[in-house]
Known about the structure:
single chain; 442 residues; mainly alpha; Growth Hormone, Chain: A; 17 helices
Amino acid sequence: MKKISPDLNSLFWTQLFGALNDNLFKSALVILITYKNISLMGLSSGSMVALCGGLFILPFFIVSATSGQLADRLNKVWLTVKIKEAEILISLLGAVGLFLENYPLMIFVLFLLGLQSTFFGPIKYALIPRYSSPEQLVFGNAMVSSGTFIAILIGTILGGIVAGIQDNYWPLVFLLFLVSGLGLYFAKKLPMDHQGNIEDINESVELAEVDWNFFSSTRDILKLVFKDSNIGLLIVGLSWFWFMGAGLLSLLPLIAKNIFNGNESVATLMLFTFTMGMGIGPFLLEKLTNGKIKLFIIPLSLICMTMVIFDLAFIVKLASKQSAHFMSYPFPLGFKDFLGVSTSYRTLVDLFLLSLFGGMFTVTQFAQLQKITPLGELSRIVAGNNIVNAATMVTVSLLLMFFHGQQFSLSLILGILGVLNIFVCIILLYFYQSEFNKLWRF
């Protein structure tokens, strides 16, 4: 068992509670809008849910560049504490919106939560190499990556539960303040003196100037990201994961409902399985590589993901032939009934393996990104990564909307994603061919 530094431990809990609060409120709001059939300004409840997702991601487009510049310019721990203090005020505003049942205000609160997450994102990845020894860099990234996905899972489930309590918002409000308060508590345990000293920063890198203009700051950040081809390649790889991840996650509820006629518990089981893979994958990688960064893992893990996607497409196609039988049931399949279906376990294994290899794919690239990027630029590089990630997530959403509009089957959509993955595999194999050849000596 590796000894975790107190600083890294505090960072882990700070980011976990932040992600938990975001997803807790987001999940609860989506459930409330859906089941209370809320419509605003001519938008249906379904469109409102889509709007919520878009508004949460929007800050990653408009202020990521500025957030990266601020994080490289100012003391990162001081900024973290201020962000967590703002989160408590945002939670208070959310409580007001809930008790007044003011949905425009609640949607604005969701935007603010996305905004504070945008400012914290570049900070947490810039602090990992400061709180980890070079030998612990993969482990530190594994902790943060796993914590984020665990928080997403717990927040999504808890939000759905507390939102389902009939006309009683107190449990949700209590959780919002508890989680944001715990985030602030751990943020204040971060060592202020480890951060913000100019001598800690690579002297060849000038301190970042803060540009509040969205267009010029975004342009400058993207220029910085792609100035070094090695860094640019890592950003492209990370963004491709979010393209695939966002696409696959959006398909899970449809697979649960339309293929297996499963209820909400089946969709939650699939989400839980996917999230567990993302949590375990980074730590398995750390064990297999003994904490060392092995770049051949990048194309290898993507090749494994591709094979699993094709297997999942095959299983979904097989299960879809039985869907008429599932639909004949008087009620949707619950947790136990779903596990009685012959293809259920293979579906869950595929979802677990997909996220397991996905966790290895992302952590290796983040660790390498932190290793080769000067500390004075790291927050801005991560901010640029967030911008590209957000763009790819929107792109896959539009692509899936087109596929659904063309009435493509879910197995065909999965197959198309697998084919796209093959092209990216070829590109990564080309750039990492020398590292990939080392696989046979590993």
